[in-house]
C-alpha cells in the first residue's frame, strides 16, 4: 500500500491534528471494537506465492477445454473471439466505475453500440443497459407488464429452466405482500415439446398481465406458434414477453418480426465465457414506445449532442424513474450490473456481422440435428422431441434401463460431461437429460459421444 | 472550439514530481484526452466484409442434417438479416481500443466515493483468464469443480471472520442484488413464522443507499425512511417511534457516506429485535472498519460486502460485481442455493430446503469471487487492518486540506472531529458566490486528468455535494494532486467562472446535452431508433 511509507503516514497524521491513527477512530465506541487481530490465513505477499497457491487450487477444476462437454441449460460454451477478451481487459474500463458522459465518452459509445446492435438482432428499437442475468431480465419484464396493464397474474411456460424459474419466483414476490404477482404455468405438448396453445388459452383470463414465451424453449424446441400467442394476448389485453438466446437470431425469427413488443434474454452467448456461471447477463428490450420505456428499471444510454455544434455525445435516458433517481418510488431497482460484458457483446456482434450470425445459427442447427440422429442410433436411447430444435435436445434414456446420474458418471470417467439430468425437475420425462450442441462440437466429438453412450449403456 | 485558458509556464513532469515529493502543491497536470472522432461501429465497414467465421460444418454433418433452413419451421424463420455492421477483425479491435482510449477510466486519480476505488491486481486478472475459470460450467459435477468450490469456501470463511456471520453466499450480482436477497430472506423468514401478512414494513434511513429502500419496495414491503438529526444520524427515538409489530426489518449502513459512525447502532439493533424485526447491515462503507468491528457482534442478523469495491475485484464500469451476503445461524436456512460445504475433505453443493431459491442463476460471478479470495490472501489479516487505518488516515488528511479550499464546506459543519474512510463535502458556498456548481467543478477537474468525483446518492441532503474517498490505494502524492486541481478549479470559479461552467475543454467531447433525453421524441437508445426519429435511412 503506497501510503504505508512511514514518513507519509506521519505527514498525513500531522495535518489531521491527531497524535495516532487510532485517535481517528474515536467515533467507534470501545465496546463495538473487535479488540483482537483478525484470524485469517497467513499473508501471501509475493505474487509468485499467491499465483502458485491459486494455480494449484484451480487445477482441481476440470474445464470444458480438457473434456467434451454437453452441458448447456442457461450457460453456454460458444466461441469467444480473442478480440472480445482483449477489449474487456483494457484498464480504462476494467477497473474504473463511472465518469462523466464526456470523460467516459468511449464507454458510453460502446454501450450505445451494444444496445444498437442487439436491437438489430431483436428487431426492436429500445434497449436498456444489461441486468444481472436472463432470469432477472424476465423477472423485471414481468413486473413491467404488470405495471403497464395494472394486472397481477403472469403465465410462464412449464418448459422453463429451473434456475430461471426460481429467479422469476423471487421477482414475483409473496402473496402476503403488495405488488405480488401470481405465477401460473402453461403446459407443453408431450408429443413435440411445443407450447400447448389450448392450455395457454384456457388460462388467459382478464387478470393476466403477460405471457412469457421462450424461443427456443428450455428443451431446445423451436416455438412456431408466435402469431397465435400474440393474437390471443391481444384479445385478452395481455402483453407478450419473448425470451430469446440472441445467438439463435441469425436463423430464428426475432421478437420484433413476430410482432412481440417486449423481449428478454441472455447476453452470455455474445462473446462472454461461461466463467463458472459468472458469465451470466441479461437484456431487456422493447419497441420504442413510451408505455414500455417508462417502465424500465434500468439505465439507458441515448445518443445526443454536446455543447459543441455538430459533435456527438451520449447521455443517460430516464434516470429519474430508476431507483437511483427515485429510491423506492422507482421501477424495481438497479445497481451494478454486467456493464463490462456489454462491451464484449458489442465487439462480438460487430465481429460476427449478419453473415456470422447466420453461419453460427446454421451450424448449430445442423450439428444439433446430426447429434440427435447419432444419439438416437444408440440402442435404448431416443430424442424426446425429434424435430424443430436449436442447440439443445432432450435425450431419453428410458430404453437403456439406466439412470441419467449413472450414465453421466460413466461418461465423466471417459472424459465427457453429459447433459443436465432433467429427472429432478421433469419427472414426466423420466430418465432424460438436456444435451447442448454448439458450433464448437465437431463431427468427431458427436460421434465420440454416441460411441461412448453405446459403450456405457450396453 | 473552446480551449483551456492559457496557464502559466507548464512545469516539466520531473519538476512536478519533485515538488510533490517535497510536500508542495503540485501544479495541475498538462492533459488532453484522446480525440479520435470515431464513427459508430454501425457506420463502419462494407457489405461482404467478414470478421469472425464459425467453424465449417463437416460434409458428414451437412449430408445427414441437410439444409439448415429446412430445419426451422417456416413460421419461426428469420426473414430479413439483422442490419449489423460488416467489418474485419482488426477494424473491430481498433475501434474498441479507440473507444477505450476515449475513456479516462482511472488512468488519472479516481477518488470516487462510496465505491472505494482501488488497484485490481494484475495477477488476479491473469488467473481469472485460465481455462479452469473461464471454461468451467456451473452445473458440472462437484468432483470436477473442487477448485471453484474451495475458492468459494475459502472466501466464505474469511468473510465469516470479518463479520462474525455464520454463512456467506455469492450469488447476488452486486450490492443492490444482495439487498434484494435480504428482502427475499426477510419475506421467507417472516412467512415461516406466520407473520408476513402483518410484518410489511422495512425501515431504513435517508443516508442508506437508494437500493436498500428500492429493493425492499420491489419485494413488496412498505418503506419507512428515517431523516437525519443533529448528531448526523437519525435518533433512537425516531427509530423507536417507527417500530411496531408491522416491522419486518431494518436495512442500514454504518458509517454513512458522510463518514459519521452511529454509536447507538447496538441500541438500534436491540430495539428492532425487541419489535420482532431483522437487522441487515449494508457494509458498502466497510473500507474504514475492516478488522475494527464485526456485524454479528453488533447484533446484526445479516450483512453484505461488495467484492468489487472493498475486496479488490474490478468494477468493470458497473459490473460484473458481487454482493457477498452473509447471515447468522437463524437466517441460514433461508439462504439461496447453491451453498458450499466441506465434508470429509471434499467440497459439496447443498440447497437449503427452506431457502429462497435463486435471486440470480448459478453460484455467482466466479472470476470476481476468485479475485476477492486472492486479495484476502495477498493482504492477510494485518494487511486488511492496515488498509482500514490508511483509509481513515487519508480521508482525514484530505478533510483537513479540503476545508481550506475556498468555497468548500464539510457536511454537518457543526459536527467536529474525525470522520471515517470518506465524507461528503459541499460546494454550496462556491455556487452561491460564483454560480459554478458541483457538476461544473466535476467536469472541469477532468480537464486535468482527474477522474470525475462522486456527487451524492439521491436525495441530495447536502447541497452541491461531492464525496471523495481515498482508500488504501492512492498515495499522498495522488491525493495532493487531486486537491491541487480542486483548489485550482475553485479559484478559477471565482476568477473565470465561464471557463468552469463550460467545461470540459480537454476531454474527448464537450459537455453532453441531456435535456431532451427523457422525452420520447428525444431519446434514442439504439441507432435504428435515432435514424427513425431523424428521418435517416
At a glance:
Chain A is of the alpha/beta class and 458 residues long. Chain A has 14 helices and 15 strands.
* Assigned CATH superfamily of the largest domain in chain A: Type I PLP-dependent aspartate aminotransferase-like (Major domain)
Quote the average pLDDT of chain B.
95
Strand content of chain B: 5-15%
Return residue spans of chain A where pLDDT drops below 50 for at least 5 consecutive residues. Answer: none
Largest sheet: number of strands, sense, barrel closure of chain A: 7 strands, mixed
CATH fold call of the largest domain in chain A = Aspartate Aminotransferase, domain 2
Neighbour order of strands in the largest sheet of chain A: 2-8-7-6-5-3-4
The CATH class of the largest domain in chain B turns out to be Alpha Beta
| The CATH architecture of the largest domain in chain A | 3-Layer(aba) Sandwich
Question: What is the C-alpha radius of gyration of chain B, as a whole number of Å?
Answer: 26 Å
Topology (SSEs and partners):
The complex is a heterodimer of chains A (458) and B (537).
Chain A: H1 6-16, H2 47-58, E1 68-69, H3 82-88, H4 91-94, H5 105-122, E2 126-127, H6 134-149, E3 153-157, H7 162-171, E4 182-186, H8 197-203, E5 208-215, H9 226-236, E6 239-244, E7 262-266, E8 282-286, H10 290-293, E9 300-306, E10 312-317, H11 323-326, H12 339-376, E11 382-383, E12 392-396, H13 404-413, E13 416-417, E14 420-421, E15 432-436, H14 443-456
Chain B: H1 13-21, H2 59-65, H3 89-101, H4 122-128, H5 131-134, H6 146-163, E1 167-169, H7 175-192, E2 201-205, H8 210-218, E3 222-226, H9 236-242, E4 247-253, H10 265-274, E5 278-282, E6 302-306, E7 323-327, E8 339-343, E9 346-350, H11 366-402, E10 409-410, E11 425-426, H12 428-434, H13 438-445, E12 465-466, H14 476-495, H15 497-501, E13 512-513, H16 527-533
Parallel strand pairs in B: 2-3, 2-4, 4-5, 5-6
Antiparallel strand pairs in B: 1-7, 6-7, 8-9, 10-11, 11-12
Helix pairs in contact in B: 4-11, 6-11, 7-8, 11-14
Amino acid at each position: 500500500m503506497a501510503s504505508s511509507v512511514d514518513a507519509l503516514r506521519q505527514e498525513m497524521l500531522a495535518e489531521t491534528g491527531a497524535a495516532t491513527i487510532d485517535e481517528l477512530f474515536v467515533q467507534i465506541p470501545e465496546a463495538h471494537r473487535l479488540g483482537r487481530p483478525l484470524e485469517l490465513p497467513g499473508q501471501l505477499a509475493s505474487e509468485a506465492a499467491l499465483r502458485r497457491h491459486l494455480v494449484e487450487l484451480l487445477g482441481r477444476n476440470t474445464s470444458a477445454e480438457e473434456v467434451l462437454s454437453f452441458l448447456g441449460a442457461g450457460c453456454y460454451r460458444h466461441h469467444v473471439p480473442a478480440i472480445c477478451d482483449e477489449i474487456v481487459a483494457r484498464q480504462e474500463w476494467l477497473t474504473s466505475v463511472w465518469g462523466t458522459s464526456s470523460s467516459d465518452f468511449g464507454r458510453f459509445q460502446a454501450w450505445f453500440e451494444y444496445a444498437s446492435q442487439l436491437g438489430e438482432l431483436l428487431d426492436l428499437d429500445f434497449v436498456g443497459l444489461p441486468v444481472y442475468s436472463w432470469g432477472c431480465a424476465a423477472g423485471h419484464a414481468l413486473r413491467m407488464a404488470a405495471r403497464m396493464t395494472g394486472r397481477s397474474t403472469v403465465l410462464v411456460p412449464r418448459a422453463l429452466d429451473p434456475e430461471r424459474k426460481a429467479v422469476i419466483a423471487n421477482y414475483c414476490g409473496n402473496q402476503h405482500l403488495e405488488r405480488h404477482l401470481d405465477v401460473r404455468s402453461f403446459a407443453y405438448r408431450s408429443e413435440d415439446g411445443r407450447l400447448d396453445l389450448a392450455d395457454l388459452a384456457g388460462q388467459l383470463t382478464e387478470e393476466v398481465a403477460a405471457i412469457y414465451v421462450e424461443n427456443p424453449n428450455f428443451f431446445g424446441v423451436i416455438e412456431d406458434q408466435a402469431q397465435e400467442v400474440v393474437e390471443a394476448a391481444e384479445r385478452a389485453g395481455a402483453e407478450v414477453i419473448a425470451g430469446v438466446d440472441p445467438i439463435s437470431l441469425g436463423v430464428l425469427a426475432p421478437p420484433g418480426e413476430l410482432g412481440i413488443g417486449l423481449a428478454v434474454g441472455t447476453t452470455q452467448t455474445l462473446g462472454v465465457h461461461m466463467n463458472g456461471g459468472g458469465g451470466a447477463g441479461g437484456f431487456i428490450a422493447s419497441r420504442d414506445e413510451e408505455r414500455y420505456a417508462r417502465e424500465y428499471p434500468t439505465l439507458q444510454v441515448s445518443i445526443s449532442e454536446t455543447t459543441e455544434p455538430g459533435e456527438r455525445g451520449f447521455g443517460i435516458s430516464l434516470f429519474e424513474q430508476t431507483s437511483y433517481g427515485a429510491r423506492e418510488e422507482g421501477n424495481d431497482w438497479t445497481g451494478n450490473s454486467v456493464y463490462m460484458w456489454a462491451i464484449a457483446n458489442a465487439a462480438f456482434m460487430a465481429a460476427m456481422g449478419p453473415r456470422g450470425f447466420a453461419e453460427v445459427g446454421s451450424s448449430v442447427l445442423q450439428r444439433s440435428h446430426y447429434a440427435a440422429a447419432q444419439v438416437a442410433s444408440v440402442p435404448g436411447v431416443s430424442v424426446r422431441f425429434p424435430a424443430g430444435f436449436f442447440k439443445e435436445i432432450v435425450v431419453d434414456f428410458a430404453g437403456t434401463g439406466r439412470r441419467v446420474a449413472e450414465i453421466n458418471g460413466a461418461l465423466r470417467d471417459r472424459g465427457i460431461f453429459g447433459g443436465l439430468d432433467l429427472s429432478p425437475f421433469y419427472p414426466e420425462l423420466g430418465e432424460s437429460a438436456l444435451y447442448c450442441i454448439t458450433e464448437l462440437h465437431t463431427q468427431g466429438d458427436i460421434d465420440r459421444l454416441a460411441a461412448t453412450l453405446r459403450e456405457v449403456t450396453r | 472550439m473552446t480551449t483551456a485558458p492559457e496557464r502559466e509556464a507548464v512545469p516539466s513532469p520531473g519538476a512536478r514530481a519533485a515538488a510533490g515529493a517535497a510536500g508542495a502543491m503540485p501544479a495541475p497536470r498538462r492533459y488532453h484526452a484522446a480525440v479520435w472522432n470515431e464513427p459508430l461501429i454501425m457506420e463502419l465497414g462494407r457489405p461482404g466484409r467478414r470478421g469472425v467465421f464459425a467453424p465449417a460444418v463437416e460434409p458428414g454433418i451437412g449430408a445427414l442434417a441437410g439444409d439448415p433452413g429446412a430445419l426451422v419451421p417456416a413460421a419461426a424463420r428469420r426473414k430479413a438479416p439483422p442490419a449489423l455492421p460488416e467489418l474485419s477483425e482488426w477494424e473491430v479491435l481498433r475501434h474498441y481500443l479507440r473507444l477505450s482510449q476515449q475513456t479516462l477510466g482511472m488512468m488519472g486519480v479516481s477518488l470516487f466515493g462510496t465505491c472505494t476505488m482501488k488497484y485490481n491486481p494484475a495477477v488476479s486478472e491473469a488467473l481469472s483468464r485460465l481455462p479452469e475459470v473461464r471454461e468451467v460450467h456451473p452445473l458440472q459435477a462437484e468432483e470436477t469443480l473442487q477448485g471453484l468450490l474451495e475458492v468459494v469456501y475459502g472466501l466464505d470463511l474469511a468473510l465469516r471472520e470479518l463479520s462474525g456471520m455464520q454463512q456467506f453466499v455469492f450469488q447476488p450480482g452486486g450490492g443492490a442484488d444482495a439487498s434484494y436477497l435480504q428482502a427475499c430472506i426477510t419475506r421467507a423468514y417472516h412467512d415461516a413464522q406466520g407473520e408476513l401478512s402483518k410484518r410489511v414494513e422495512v425501515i431504513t434511513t435517508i443516508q442508506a443507499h437508494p437500493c436498500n429502500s428500492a429493493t425492499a419496495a420491489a419485494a413488496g414491503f412498505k418503506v419507512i425512511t428515517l431523516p437525519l438529526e443533529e448528531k448526523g444520524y437519525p435518533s433512537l427515538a425516531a427509530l423507536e417511534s417507527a417500530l411496531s409489530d408491522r416491522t419486518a426489518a431494518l436495512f442500514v449502513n454504518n458509517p454513512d457516506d458522510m463518514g459519521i459512525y452511529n454509536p447507538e447502532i447496538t441500541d438500534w439493533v436491540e430495539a428492532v429485535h425487541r419489535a420482532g424485526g431483522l437487522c441487515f447491515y449494508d457494509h458498502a462503507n466497510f473500507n474504514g472498519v475492516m478488522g475494527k468491528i464485526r456485524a454479528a457482534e453488533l447484533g446484526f442478523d445479516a450483512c453484505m460486502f461488495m467484492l468489487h469495491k472493498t475486496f479488490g475485484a474490478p468494477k468493470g464500469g458497473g459490473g460484473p460485481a458481487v454482493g457477498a451476503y452473509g447471515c447468522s445461524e437463524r437466517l441460514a436456512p433461508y439462504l439461496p442455493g447453491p451453498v458450499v460445504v466441506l465434508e470429509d475433505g471434499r467440497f459439496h453443493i447443498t440447497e437449503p430446503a427452506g431457502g429462497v431459491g435463486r435471486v440470480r442463476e448459478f453460484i455467482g460471478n466466479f472470476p470476481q469471487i476468485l479475485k476477492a479470495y486472492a486479495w484476502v490472501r495477498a493482504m492477510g489479516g494485518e494487511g486488511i487492518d492496515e488498509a482500514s487505518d490508511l483509509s481513515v488516515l487519508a480521508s482525514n488528511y484530505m478533510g483537513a486540506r479540503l476545508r481550506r479550499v475556498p468555497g468548500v464546506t464539510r457536511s454537518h459543519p457543526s459536527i467536529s472531529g474525525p470522520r471515517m474512510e470518506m465524507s461528503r463535502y459541499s460546494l454550496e458556498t462556491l455556487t452561491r458566490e460564483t454560480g459554478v456548481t458541483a457538476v461544473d467543478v466535476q467536469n472541469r477537474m477532468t480537464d486535468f486528468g482527474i477522474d470525475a468525483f462522486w456527487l451524492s446518492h439521491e436525495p441530495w441532503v447536502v447541497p452541491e455535494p461531492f464525496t471523495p474517498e481515498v482508500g488504501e490505494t492512492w498515495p499522498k502524492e495522488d491525493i495532493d494532486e487531486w486537491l491541487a486541481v480542486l483548489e485550482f478549479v475553485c479559484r478559477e470559479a471565482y476568477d473565470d467562472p465561464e471557463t468552469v461552467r463550460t467545461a470540459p475543454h480537454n476531454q474527448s467531447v464537450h459537455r453532453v446535452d441531456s435535456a431532451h433525453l427523457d422525452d420520447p421524441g428525444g431519446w434514442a437508445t439504439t441507432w435504428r431508433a435515432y435514424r427513425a426519429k431523424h428521418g435517416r435511412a
